[in-house]
C-alpha cells in the first residue's frame, strides 16, 4: 500500500491530508507522520530521505518528494479536483519545486487556520495515532 509521510506538527500538511481524503483519495493510500514510529522505521530503511523537507510518497521502493508527490496525489483523485494535479504536471518541475519550497519554508508565517477534527472514516487513513496530529 502507498504511504504518505508528512509533518504531523504542520497544520497545513495535516489539513492537506484531510482535503485529499474528503476529495476521494483511494483507501489504498495511508498516512504516517514523519516523526512517528512508522516514519522512523521508514528513515532507517531510506536514510537518504531524512534530509528532505518534504511530504514523501512511498509506493513500494519508489519514493516521490515535494511537488511530484503532491501532483501525483492530486492526480489520483477521482473527481473534478483531478484537473488541479494534471495542471501541476504541466508546470516545469523546477518551478513546481520552487513553489513547494517557498510554501514549506514559510508555512509558519502564513495565515492562521485550525486543526480539522477528523471523522472516523478520515481517521482510518492514518497509521499512527500521534497526539500531536489532533486525531483525538
TrEMBL record:
Pfam families associated with the record: DCC1-like
GO molecular function, one term: protein-disulfide reductase activity
Name recorded for this polypeptide: Thiol-disulfide oxidoreductase
Organism the protein comes from: Staphylococcus saccharolyticus
Amino acid at each position: 500500500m502507498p504511504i504518505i509521510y508528512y509533518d504531523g506538527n504542520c497544520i497545513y500538511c495535516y489539513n492537506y491530508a484531510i482535503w485529499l481524503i474528503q476529495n476521494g483519495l483511494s483507501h489504498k493510500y495511508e498516512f504516517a507522520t514523519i516523526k512517528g514510529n512508522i516514519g522512523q522505521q521508514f528513515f532507517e530503511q531510506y536514510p537518504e530521505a531524512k534530509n528532505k523537507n518534504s511530504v514523501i510518497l512511498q509506493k513500494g521502493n519508489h519514493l516521490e518528494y515535494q511537488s511530484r508527490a503532491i501532483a501525483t496525489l492530486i492526480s489520483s483523485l477521482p473527481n473534478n479536483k483531478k484537473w488541479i494535479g494534471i495542471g501541476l504536471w504541466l508546470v516545469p518541475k523546477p518551478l513546481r519545486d520552487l513553489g513547494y519550497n517557498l510554501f514549506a519554508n514559510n508555512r509558519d508565517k502564513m495565515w492562521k487556520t485550525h486543526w480539522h477534527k477528523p471523522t472516523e472514516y478520515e481517521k482510518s487513513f492514518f497509521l499512527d495515532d500521534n497526539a500531536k496530529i489532533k486525531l483525538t
